[in-house]
Amino acid sequence: MNDIDDLRTALSARFPILCIETHEEPRARALLHKLALEQGGGLYEWSIADGLIHTNFQYGSERRASWQTVEGWQPPREEASGQRRVVEQTQELQAALQHIDKAGEAGLYLLFDVHPFLEQAAVQRLLREIAFAHTDNPRTLVLIGPSIVLPPEIARHALFHTLRLPDAVRVRAIFTEEIELFAHSREGRKVQGEQAIADLLVQHLVGLCEEDVRRLLRLSIRDDAAITRSDIARIVQAKREMCAESALEIEFAVADLATVGGMPNLKRWLALRQMAFAGQAPNLPAPRGVLLLGVQGAGKSLAARTIAGAWNVPLARLDMGSLFDKFHGETERNLRKALAAAESLAPCVLWIDEIEKALAQGSAESDGGVGRRVLGTLLTWMSEHDERVFIAATANDIRALPPELMRKGRFDEIFFVDLPDAETRREILGIHLARRGHAATGFDLEQLARASEGFTGAEIEQAIVGAAFEAHASRQPLATGHIAGEMARTRPLSVLMAETMAELRSWAQARTVLA
Prior knowledge:
By secondary structure, the chain is an alpha/beta fold. The chain has four domains: 3-66 and 73-161, Rossmann fold (3-Layer(aba) Sandwich), CATH 3.40.50; 168-242; 255-417, P-loop containing nucleotide triphosphate hydrolases (Rossmann fold, 3-Layer(aba) Sandwich), CATH 3.40.50; 422-496, Helicase, Ruva Protein, domain 3, CATH 1.10.8. 49% of the residues lie in helices and 15% in strands. It is built from 24 helices and 16 strands. The strands form three sheets. It has a seven-stranded mixed β-sheet, with helices on both faces. A seven-stranded mixed β-sheet has the order 10-12-13-14-11-15-16, with helices on both faces. A hairpin with a 3-residue loop joins β2 and β3 (51-57). The chain starts with a helix and ends with a strand. The model is unreliable at 61-81 and 361-365 (pLDDT under 50).
């Protein structure tokens, strides 16, 4: 199926009102013009600037018959084949709808940017009158605009349709077209760049409409006749601006998984699925997401963030707390808006941190059921979305998560991030020392690994930070003794919450995959 087939099917369903939410008005208009020509019906357009226009007007059979009574006379070509005819005094939407209701013929009526007028009582009544008469006089109103919100009594007569976004094959074809256009232009020359960067550019353009794809490609090509990583950053910035009004926080430069200590099983799992997520394994489905459970400070959030860096895609963080609104229905609407923004950013990683805080069981009594409705909206989207949006969710309290979220099919895998073992602690020590400009070879990592038994990665990092302050105060270079001393003064979470952590680790052993 393609756009023309989708619209043909939508029109054959005989809804009185068809709503097309799009910024690509010329593309929607061209598709509907093609369908009107195919079906042979009347085609009208309305905008507040021009009023109602009969775009394929032609004289009827009676006028054609009269041509033959005048010997040697032929009508002008535009009259014979069809031309534009303005319907006078229809610049106001109400007047245009009155004309359609009282004198409009069967056909398509394209109405552009009607959203400012949909709250008017007379407009709503006329829309209903036209809808009620659709069986006897099939006049289909096609509302076209970036955003269309219909009152409930009108919405029941309407079918909403969204134009398809170009897939990677189509984006690549547009890329080739724009390169050829540039080569044959006055300033044209051969476009430079590595194939890997070009492939990455195509990957990041998926999720944008054709109009935006062409504009960004032209900007990338004509800027310096080269495809570089700066062009990819520009595309990510464009996508970030599109998500500005949603509850998403967008990042691009995210550290790689190499900066995460341990977690070999998780790293291997992600490496095996990277090609499929990039669309370079045609016989394999794209991975949909992972849920990372574990103790606080063990590196779940860091791992979730660095998946985006490893796969070289943007990271979209969904702030669940910012979704909630005091007005009925607004919280779910905010979530749908955020998920749609994530889809437009695809391919990307959607990071949902501490997911149990918003979806905890038993919240229905205290929040009026908002948590359950949010859960339902999220689960439906997780099951049905087709865009390459990889969910990386983290949770600390497994008992608070609803069972619907935990079953297979919601996430590809559930990983448990445990306390780091001795080898992982040595690796974490080396990472944090190097991050602060210290060579790991200057420290006794074996001693520090023993001293940090029961520590999380976050606690090891804070021990190094605290030791650095001690060394600075005593005007000495940071040494093993400073770090070991700081560790000795620290009471890790595994001691403070020993019973809770023991219960969590016991639960996870037989139910999850160790990261």
